[in-house]
Design a protein that fits this description.
This protein is mostly helical. Helix content is 47%, strand content 6%.
Amino acid sequence: MCDRFGISSVHEIDKNIANLVPLNTQKSRSSAWKQFESFCSERKSCLNGDTTIEELSRIMKDFGFNMKKLNGEDYKEEVVKTMWNTVAKLLQKKHYEEYRVSFDPFKDVIFSGARKARDAKRKELQRDIDKRKRSAASLTLEEHEKIVGLWDEETPDGLQRKFYHIAACELAWRGGEAAKCLVTYFKEERNNIGELTGRIIYDPIFEKTAQGGAGRLCEKKWLTNNVKNSDRCPVR
């Protein structure tokens, strides 16, 4: 008779928990911590059970503003934030697991100066065009013309592409429904006296091969004129 519960040891459980972290994340954390250890070594700062939280705050404040690349250059603005946050999390984890010292570098008042030093460094780097975070670039004229061409209603491909994106949303197409759609699935609706109502009926039952099929094929849907904003979308 097998045991009801598992027999994995705490070590095995911890190993599986560690495997939850992606390899790239592990590498980036390791790299950030090595940089921090190098910084502490140069500053002759100790990281042990006797290090007070006040001292840790001072170290993180110094690191937040003075971190550099190996060649002595400044990091880019977004890297400063990522590096500081990563080191802060690892420092928090290390001191709790090894020394049972608990603190939160992201919320505790005592670390407010360290957080401000990080933010001040980022603001300083934002003045440097090579270091600040780049916003999305505007489309070039060539890229703009290419997009306009893709959606040109005067061409068969452009008209089909535009219609698909409108109809797929308005008719709530799912799965391969669009791929199986035929022109015969659409008809202009007429009232009792034969006048056009302005609505287009979509119903796969219009296709003879669909008759006698599943009940869901008999569900009608309509495309109607968009009277509020026809330039943006001709139907709703």
